[in-house]
Structure formats: C-alpha cells, structure tokens
Amino acid sequence: MPETPEPAAIVGVAESDLGQVGPGLSALDLIGQATARALADAGLTKNDIDGVLCHSAFFDLPPSAVAEYLGIQPSYTDSTAIGGASFVGYLQHAASAIEAGLCEVALITYGSTQRSSSSGLVTSGPALVKSDETPFGPRMPVTAYALAAARHMHEFGTTREQLAEVAVAARRWAQLNPAAFKRGPLTVEDVLSSPMVSSPLTVRDCCLVTDGGGAVLVTSKARAKTLRRPPVYLLGCAEAHTHRHISQMPDLTTTGARASGERAFAAAGLKPSDVDVAELYDAFTINTILFLEDLGFCAKGDGGGFVTGGGIAPGGRLAVNTSGGGLSYGHPGMFGIFLIIEAVRQLRGECGERQVPDANVALVHGNGGVLSTQVTTLLGGASTR
Questions:
Q1: Does residue 367 sit in helix, strand or coil?
Q2: CA 221, CA 384: separation in Å to the nearest integer?
Q3: What GO molecular functions are on record for this protein (predicted)?
C-alpha cells in the first residue's frame, strides 16, 4: 500500500533572504519572507493556509509562533522534531492531513539566523541527555559523522580524495546558482589541505553555517490544478529511525536510508534508475556517499568510486545537490526544506544554468541527528500523474 496519499501536490516554494541577514532580522522574519514569496509563487493568500508544519531551535511552540506571526489561525499543526529530516517528513504528514480533511492548504516552513546569531561559529554545547559518548568529549555532530567516514574508509577503501570529490561537485553546482553562499573555485587539494575538524573531515568536508528560511505549500491534487504554478506531485514517501546516539548505530556504514528508500520507491512504483535529480542532505561529505549507496544508486562500498571524476557534478552520471547543497549553497542549522525547494524548481524547469534537462522525477532525502532519522520522498512533474 502506498505510504503517501494520492491527492497531495506542492504548489508553491520560496526561500527568504539567505547567507548572512542579521542583525535586524529574526528567524520568524525569515519565515515571513519565505511564506509571502511562496504564496505569491502559488497564487494564494495567507488566509488560504489552514495547516502549519514547522520545527525550530530558535523559538518554542513553533506552529503557534508562526501562525501568530503570520496572523492566521490554522486548524491543523505539526511540530514533529526529527532534526533536519523533519521537513521532508512533513510532506507525508501534510498529504495525510489533506486526505483526512484536516486542512486544505498546508504550509511547511523553517527559518534560522544561525550565522548571525553565532558569528558563524557553532559549538557543541552541554548535552541535554548524557550518553555513552559524553566522557570522550566529542564535538557533535561532526565527530559522529567522522566516525562513519573513518569506518567507511576502513571497510571499503574509500579515500579522503573521494570524500573531497563530493565537496568539489557541490561547489561546481553552486557556481551555477546565483543564490549560493560559496561560489569560488574549489579543488580536491583545497578540501584536503583545509583545517582538520575531526579526522578525517576537514572544514571543507563540513556544511556551511548560514542564515536562511524556506516555505513549501502543499494542497490537494484537485486544487493544485487551479493554481498559478505547475503542480509537483508526491509520489512516495517513507521514514526510518535507527538510533539517537552514534554509539548505538547498528552499522556505521549503513543508514536508515536503505529502509526509507526501499519503501519510498515501492510506494512510488519507481526505481533508482528512474530518478533524474537527487537532492541529498549533505551536512558532511560522507553523507552523500552513504546515501547514494543506501538509496540504491550504487552498491554498498562503491560510493567513493561513484562520485570520482565528477560523477555527481554537472554533466556527471547523476545530478546530485544541484543548488550546491549544504556544502556550498547554504546550511542554516537544518537543511531539509531547501532540498524540497530545489527539487520542485528542477521539476518545474526553473533552474537556469543548473537546470537538469528533462527532469521528471526527483528524489529528496532528509537526514536528522547523527545519521539517526532518514526520510525519502519521490516527487514528480506533470508527466508522472
């Protein structure tokens, strides 16, 4: 049985101002910007919104705060918190709510001033829940991802150069995106020679720290056909949760993306070879390699070879993270909503120099925690429905 209801479609997407926007703007201000732009994109007004789905580390009671800021009183809200994967998961939640008649137009939104609020630096901070890792003083989350990278290198011979290829490919896409935060030249040697953060990951193996907000509007298939922009349909979506703390991850080289991907492809009636563009949560370079393997684009252990030689760069074997991703486009704390926005724009043919020709099917994959939560969604343009 499909895990995503048939009627749902994305009808509007937008970002707020990006990069470094403070001082003077709050996370809610960025949500307001993005929402107003998404409404204009869809041809709707704020009074059409009757569902709000959001998660934030910057303010409490997120749906209530957003609704109050926007001046609306929704009939359905959701603030499920599974890290950066939350927003990809909200697509399925919104579709279910629409099918159940709980709302008609759902707003998925996020805003963060992480760069402005922290002067570009992120510290681990005290752990709210002590774990088996605490006595070792890890710098989370990078230490956890470094463990996964080191294990992958040990088991499969993956090299630091191959990890660097992921960052270089992301930068090549970013150079085609005027909105990307980092667009300067980047080579494999640049990545390898940048300061080490947590071995084997250097600064350039790690995502950016930026400000930014995003908004996505979801409605029924029937209403979507009456609106301004071509609908982008939810074809299949699935979640998987494997652990909270990295010491409890069943296998450092295999993520829950294997399970979420299998179920999402089954729900959509598709396979990896049907995907034209893949937007993968690339908080660290190892993420992209792990997800390419676990989602079935290549065999386990072959991710390093898959990305080598520009395999996921413009003109490569698979278009991956076409905005520049979290490594070069931006990363305001949680990145999932921006993966959705880029996928929708690719399917609508709006991406200019970075547009993937004849893009009909996009895979969006969200990741939360320390490889803890995984959500995979397949999106399709008009030809898929």
A1: strand
A2: 13
A3: acyltransferase activity, transferring groups other than amino-acyl groups
Taking CA 182 as the corner, what is the angle to CA 29 and CA 31, rounded to the nearest 5 degrees?
15
How large is the average pLDDT for residues 173-195? 98
CA distance 221 to 300: 37
Enter the tokens of residue 141: 């989350």
How far is Cα 385 from Cα 383, in angstroms, rounded to an integer?
6
Supply 147's token pair: 């463990």
What 8-state DSSP symbol labels residue 137? -
Tell me the three state secondary structure of residue 296: coil
Domains detected in the chain: 8-118+208-384 (3.40.47.10)
Q: Which two tokens stand for residue 376?
A: 């995979």
Residue 169 CA, distance from chain mean position? 17
For the chain, what percentages of helix, strand and coil (3-state, to nearest 5) are there?
Answer: 40, 20, 40
Helix (H, G, I), strand (E, B) or coil at 378: strand
DSSP code per residue over 99-132: HTTS-SEEEEEEEE-HHHHHTT-------SS--T
pLDDT tier at 329 (50, 70, 90 boundaries)?
very high
User: Measuring CA to CA, which residue among 217, 242, 267 is closest to residue 109?
Assistant: 217
Contact 106, 53 (CB under 8 A): yes
Q: At residue 285, does pLDDT exceed 90?
A: yes
DSSP character string of 41-93 = HHT--GGG--EEEE--SSSSSHHHHHHHHHT---SEEE---BTBTHHHHHHHH
Nearest to 366 by CA among 358, 379, 376, 353: 376
Instruction: Find tokens 């895990």 and name the residue.
Output: 3
Q: Determine the 3-state secondary structure of 308 from DSSP.
A: coil
The answer on pLDDT for 336 being more than 50 is yes
Model confidence, pTM: 0.95
Phi and psi based region of residue 296 (left: phi greater than 0; alpha: psi -120 to 50; beta: remaining): left
* CA 260, 16, 219, 357 torsion-angle sign: negative
Length of the chain: 385
